Amino acid sequence: MRPLIPIALLALLLGGPALAQAPAAPAVPVETATVERGRVPVEIIANGTVASENVVSVRTRVDGQVERVHVREGQMVKRGDVLFTLDKRLNEATLAQQEAQLLRDRATAARTAADQARYASLRGEGFAAQQRYEQAQADAAVAAANVRASEALVAYTRTLLDYATITAEVDGRLGALPVREGNVLRAAENVVIATITPMDPLVVRFNVPERWVADLRAALAGANPPAVRAAPPGDTSAPPAQGRLVFMDSTVDSTTGTIAVTGRFPNANGRLWPGQWVAVTVTVREEEGTTVPVQAVQQGPRGRQVFVLDAGAVAHRRAVQLVRVANGRAVITGEVQPGDRVVVEGANLLTEGARTVERQPGGAPRQGRPGA
Predict the structure, then answer these.
(1) What angle do the packed helices 130-163 and 89-124 form, to 10 degrees?
(2) What are residue 330's DSSP bridge partners?
(3) Three-state secondary-structure class, residue 350
(4) Per-residue model confidence as pLDDT tens digits over 113-146
(5) What is the residue-wise DSSP string for 24-41?
(6) Is the CB of residue 258 less than 8 Å from the CB of residue 30?
(7) Strand-strand pairing, 192-197 and 258-265
(8) What gap in Å lies between CA 290 and CA 285, rounded to an integer?
(9) Which residue, 114, 119, 150, 151, is CA-closest to 135?
(10) Quick one: which of 106, 109, 248, 332 has the most CB atoms within 10 Å?
(11) For 319-346, what is each residue's pLDDT tens digit?
């Protein structure tokens, strides 16, 4: 006799009401953001180089031995600070000699002027010959000329003495100092003995494609020059440095199809450094646009897409077109509306019609949300 098949098992085999149903797929944890509509900046992205507007090369204007170096390499200096002192004893001796000569010439000028005045009065009364008066007049003119020549020599030597004290002509940071105390400097050799690089403000020079020429011209013609941001590589300690566009070259480089532009940046905190490479962003104008966080835009099988959640937290795929990226948000067009909730994190786990549960950024799923 055959064994009896259990009734429940028989019902299962025959597809009866006791047939078990497959469990529903769990909700996918996601993070969302809202689609926004508003003014969005139009930006130019480029790479640039930081530079100083006016690097001063310090040279000696007189011959002499370096008596003292008053500064250190890399030191910040102010206009008028003493950098070097040269031996000036020889010029001081020459000045003393010339000042004595000036005193003698002034005494001679005073005597000849008195003679001229005396002969002029006597000539009027017929007591002096015309020739004697003319001689006194000439002597007075020569003595006055000698005084002026001696004064010029004294001024020249005093200038040489001033040049023996070499000072900073601008505010800035000193570079390397190739001379030391005891070195002999000669003006004819025209050797650079120091460089001073102004550090505030600085400029950033970069090139942009020629298609931006019209936008840059329009922006520079406005009352406020376009804003420029510069970010040193790897420097995330602070937001990018803020500056203004101040110059666009008069010609386009036909070889590269680019045009050179320059931005000026305040640099009181010393964040930028001459010669440094920076990432540059220029804001030329603003225009209306629909934006989402850039992470929300994915590359799908039919182009770019986003996942939009409906009222029941069910994900739906929407096709979009990426116009550009500005300030970490993607400017898009397509099947989205302002106010829609788009998936920012977790979209790679979604399919059309998937249930979701929203979680806090970096945290656990939120409780009580639809579809949880």
Answers:
(1) 160
(2) 292, 325
(3) coil
(4) 988 888 777 765 555 577 788 888 898 999 999 9
(5) PPPPEEEEEEE-EEEEEE
(6) no
(7) unpaired
(8) 16
(9) 119
(10) 332
(11) 999 988 887 889 999 989 999 999 999 8
